[in-house]
Structure formats: C-alpha cells, structure tokens
Amino acid sequence: MRHHDKECGEPPDAPADGSGGCDEAANDVERRRELWAAARCAGVLLALLLLVDWGSGRTTPWRSALWLALTGLLFVLLHPARVSAGGNWLASRGLLREHRVRTDRLVSVRVHDGVSQRLLLRDALGGRVEIDPEVLVRNPQLWARVDAGARKAAADGSLLCGTTALRRIALRVDRETAHAVFKASGLE
Prior knowledge:
Layout (H helix, E strand, L loop, with lengths): L3 H4 L18 E2 L3 H26 L4 H18 L3 E4 L3 E5 L4 E5 L3 E7 L5 E6 L4 E4 L1 H5 L2 H17 L6 H23 L3
Antiparallel strand pairs: 1-2, 2-3, 3-4, 5-6, 6-7
Helix pairs in contact: 2-3, 5-6
C-alpha cells in the first residue's frame, strides 16, 4: 500500500488507486553486484584466515569464531546501501535504517571529498541522505527522479546551496550516457 503524501509528494486527496502520477521507484541496478563482491571479500578472508590457522596447527573453536566475527564485520562495512528514488523522494537504506529526503523540498546539496566522495542532501523537513554520487551517475533513471525534484526545489527557491554540485553530477551523467551510447553503437 502506498502513502501518497510520504512517497510521491501528492496531495492527500489524490486517487488511492495509484493513478495520481507517481512513477514506480527507481533502484540502483549495480547494488546486487556490489553485495556479492562484499560477500566474496568476506568469504575469501575467512577462508584464508582458517587456512593459515589450519596450516599452523592453531585451529581452535574460539579462534574460528573470532575469524568469523572479523569477516562478518568486514561484510557489514562493505555492505552497500540500497538507494531508490520515486516521484519526489530519495531513500538510502543501510543494514539498520532508512534515510529519506523529499527532493522537491531540498535546501542543500553538498559534496564531501575524501577517500570516497559522498553526496549529502538535506530537505526542509529535516530529512538527510548521504550517498555515493557514482550511484546517480551509473543509474540515469535514479538521477532523472532526483534531478526533477531538485529542479522543482530550485524553482520554488528552497534549494539554497548545491546547484553547482547538481550541475557537475548532471554533466557526469550526460558524459557517461553518451559514452555508453557510442560504445553500444560501435563508434567508440
């Protein structure tokens, strides 16, 4: 069952049959591959640790449990967030909780540089989402939903900070899309 006001930004009196104009949610298409990569990394580390213990003759149940806990922690750290977007919202769901912003009510968009770049979006309702901008670059459908909401927020005057960051992401999305088209058509 959909909650129109929360998910789509539609008025509460919109038709309950889903014909109110809200598209289905777009999801990160690469997440499954990243999830399997995280599981493989954790599994390989566990196998190597147990193999070294077995080779040295130090295998005990306690050490095996320690290695299992260590590789479980690695999996938790590498676990990718599930990013999805709909009519006027963007959500990022980690292992424990989901963060959501209304894209049509954004007040700031900031890019944090560091070891890995992070995009921080905040809305007027206090919502906050932090995602990897690469997720938007490699998922044009996801980007289209975020961009439409951000354009509405900018037109309404609520987006006070972040138009430059959004423009840079738009250029990257356009560049990657054009590159994919050229590659698929054999013009690369």
